[in-house]
Design a protein that fits this description.
InterPro entries: Ig-like_CS_Receptor (IPR051755), Ig-like_dom (IPR007110), Ig-like_dom_sf (IPR036179), Ig-like_fold (IPR013783), Ig_C1-set (IPR003597), Ig_sub (IPR003599), Ig_V-set (IPR013106). Keywords: Disulfide bond, Glycoprotein, Immunoglobulin domain, Signal. It comes from Monodelphis domestica. This is Ig-like domain-containing protein. The chain has about 350 residues and is mostly beta strands. It has 3 domains: about 30-135, Immunoglobulin-like (Sandwich), CATH 2.60.40.10; about 140-240, Immunoglobulin-like (Sandwich); about 240-340, Immunoglobulin-like, CATH 2.60.40. The chain is about 0% helix and about 45% strand. It contains 1 helix and 31 strands. The protein has one helix at about 20-25, and strands spanning about 1-5, 10-15, 30, 35-40, 45, 50, 60-65, 70-75, 85, 95-100, 105-115, 120-125, 130-135, 140-145, 150, 155-165, 170-175, 180, 185-190, 195-205, 215-220, 230-235, 240, 245-250, 255-265, 270-275, 280-285, 290, 295-305, 315-320, 330-335. Strands 4, 7, 8, 11, 12 and 13 form a 6-stranded mixed sheet that branches. Strand 24 and strand 25 (about 255-265) form a beta hairpin.
């Protein structure tokens, strides 16, 4: 700008500097570019610094960008009790702490400087800090058949765990300590999410020696020091049908003892009835079965006959009903026509 000197009429040069504009050009909002990862339940620090704070106006923190962003903290007075300034009343450090982190806190956070006005207008934003939350999976839950299943059948078992992050997880099945081959687990949702769930199904054939066996689902995740296991005891679902034999022993005083041998059954739920010529003569419910080493049970029931009273052929029947939830486990052994024809214990029974 040219100005004339009123006295000597000599030109003078006047230089004007608009300080506010220079300050606006120099002010920068700085956030670290590196993403931040934190375990669920802990406290995380999100760093933000301004090169100066001479420009009037507040600094605010937002989760997300664009029209859907959400204000989470205002240095003029935050309302969220989980969020606090790292250095209160600082003119350049606008870092915040977020406590008790949850998977829902996952997202990108922006530190934004506003220019004072009516209303305040956004002046400059930091580049954003991506926050991810590491969350442990829940204890795996194993489910299987609702009722008891006969030995020899193939059944499905399902394992579920939920609430973990990040998405990568390992899952395997074991029967006792032996791996079971199965399909890859399903992790959902398939798209990005704050937390994830996993499910897997395997098939197992039940064997007679499985009363003490366990089906195990094991999951491993970067948040775990040791894998988590969910278990199902096969004793809760397996049914081992009994093997039944009948034999006789002759006793003094012209008596005969007919024995019904019930072997290797599980669970220990068995009713035994003795029939003479189709008429029930005895019923045994509260028996003292012997537990075998493999977890199954065995039991002998006896029925005594006075041979001197036998005038004609008799039919002696031992009726074994195992696990009365189903009628197909009733086994009948009949011996006719003469009691003397009942095999002895050492005879083979066909």
């Amino acid at each position: 700008m040219l100005v004339l000197d009123p006295v000597g009429l000599k030109p003078l040069v006047c230089c004007c500097i608009f300080i506010t504009g220079a300050q606006e050009q120099e002010l920068q909002v700085l956030q670290p570019k590196e993403p931040v990862s934190v375990a669920k339940g802990l406290t995380v620090t999100l760093n933000c610094t301004a090169t100066s704070n001479d420009l009037p106006g507040p600094v605010k923190w937002f989760k997300g960008a664009g029209p859907q962003r959400k204000e989470i903290y205002n240095f003029r007075g935050g309302s969220n009790p989980r969020i606090k300034a790292v250095v209160p009343s600082s003119n350049t450090d606008f870092s915040i702490n977020i406590s008790n982190i949850t998977p829902e806190d996952t997202g990108t956070y922006y530190c934004v400087k506003f220019k004072k006005g009516n209303p305040d207008t956004e002046f400059k934003s930091g580049g954003g800090t991506m926050l991810s939350v590491r969350a442990k999976p829940s204890q795996p839950l194993v489910s299987g058949p609702q009722g008891r299943i006969n030995v020899g059948q193939v059944e499905n078992f399902t394992c579920k765990a939920h609430g973990f992050s990040p998405k990568k997880i390992e899952l395997k099945w074991l029967k006792n300590n032996n791996d079971i081959t199965t399909n890859l687990p399903k992790i959902f949702p398939e798209n990005n999410s704050v937390s994830y769930n996993v499910t897997s199904t395997t098939q197992v054939k039940l064997e007679a020696n499985d009363v003490h066996s366990k089906i195990i689902c094991e999951v491993d995740h970067e948040t775990l020091e040791t894998p988590l296991q969910g278990k199902m005891n096969l004793s809760s679902i397996i049914r081992v049908l009994p093997k039944v034999n009948i034999y006789r022993d002759l006793l003094p005083m012209n008596l005969a003892n007919v024995t019904c041998e019930v072997k290797k059954f599980f669970p220990n739920i068995v009713d035994i009835s003795w029939l003479e010529n189709g008429t029930e003569r005895d019923k045994i419910k509260n028996h003292n079965a012997t537990e075998n080493n493999d977890g199954t049970y065995s039991f002998n029931a006896s029925f005594q006959v006075n041979m001197s009273l036998v005038k004609e052929a008799k039919e002696i029947t031992c009726v074994v009903t195992h696990d009365s939830q189903t009628s197909i486990n009733t086994i009948i052994y009949s011996v006719i026509p003469q009691l003397k024809d009942i095999p002895s214990k050492n005879d083979s029974f066909a």
